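ARCHIVE CARD
CATEGORY: sequence design from structure
SOURCE FIELD: tokenized fold
FIELD CONTENT:
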């Protein structure tokens, strides 16, 4: 596999030919930081451009959902956080996670012809193996305005020997699945364009369109699962995704309960 080290994620190269309305309005680049989320939390107190995107080559304290460690070797993946100003209701936070997951999944399907899928709410899979994830948090700036931080981690050119094997889901990368080296700059540019497209769909409140596409890509739908929510366990069959991104579980007593991604976890 072609070595990647000389090919840095230079902002000017990512922005060259970038066609977006919001996402990637400004690109900030770091070689090594604690996490792009940490930098984003500092940035929200400034007069940043809506859609500002932070890339890092290496994170020393990268975290995913439920504080799980996210590890990616330097120069081998994409580690980024996008800042968006949005008046979305807090109840729709999970829908934003799904929107981004749909955008990334669609991009990999169309650009690489790989059967990418989503494990609700935020895991990105190919053949049951995880190659990426999405984390969304809501923060408030000094004016008490809500700012959404969209954190994304993707294994692109990571080799099998570089991947951590002690993850809750077996890992993989785009290069492993495609069996070829992937240009990260081109990937990053295309990724931002797909995210921008789907974010605009969300902004225009086409929630049903998003959840239908999410359901199409979601491997969780149709499965019998045990879900933990606020310390309680529920078992049943997943029958769909609600308009605000919640997982719809048909319980054994015949009733349907909706779980929000911020609180619920699927018991493996």
């Amino acid at each position: 596999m072609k070595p990647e080290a000389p090919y840095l994620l230079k902002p000017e190269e990512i922005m060259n030919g970038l066609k977006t309305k919001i996402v990637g309005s400004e690109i900030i680049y770091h070689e090594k930081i604690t996490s792009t989320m940490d930098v984003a939390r500092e940035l929200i107190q400034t007069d940043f451009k809506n859609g500002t995107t932070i890339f890092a080559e290496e994170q020393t304290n990268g975290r995913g959902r439920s504080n799980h460690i996210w590890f990616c070797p330097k120069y081998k993946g994409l580690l980024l956080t996008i800042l968006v100003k949005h008046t979305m209701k807090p109840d729709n936070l999970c829908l934003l996670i799904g929107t981004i997951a749909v955008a990334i999944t669609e991009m990999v399907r169309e650009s690489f012809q790989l059967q990418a899928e989503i494990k609700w709410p935020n895991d990105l899979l190919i053949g049951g193996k995880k190659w990426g994830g999405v984390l969304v948090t809501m923060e408030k700036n000094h004016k008490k305005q809500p700012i959404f931080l969209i954190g994304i981690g993707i294994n692109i050119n990571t080799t099998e020997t570089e991947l951590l094997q002690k993850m809750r889901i077996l890992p993989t990368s785009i290069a492993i699945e495609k069996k070829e080296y992937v240009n990260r700059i081109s990937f990053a540019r295309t990724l931002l364009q797909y995210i921008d497209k789907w974010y605009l769909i969300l902004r225009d409140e086409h929630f049903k369109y998003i959840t239908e596409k999410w359901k199409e890509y979601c491997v969780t739908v149709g499965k019998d699962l045990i879900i933990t929510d606020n310390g309680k366990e529920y078992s049943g069959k997943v029958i769909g995704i609600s308009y605000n991104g919640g997982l719809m579980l048909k319980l054994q007593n015949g009733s349907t309960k909706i779980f929000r991604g911020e609180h619920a976890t699927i018991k493996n």
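CARD ANNOTATION: The mean pLDDT is 91. The first strand starts at residue 27 and ends at 33.
SHELF: design records, drawer C
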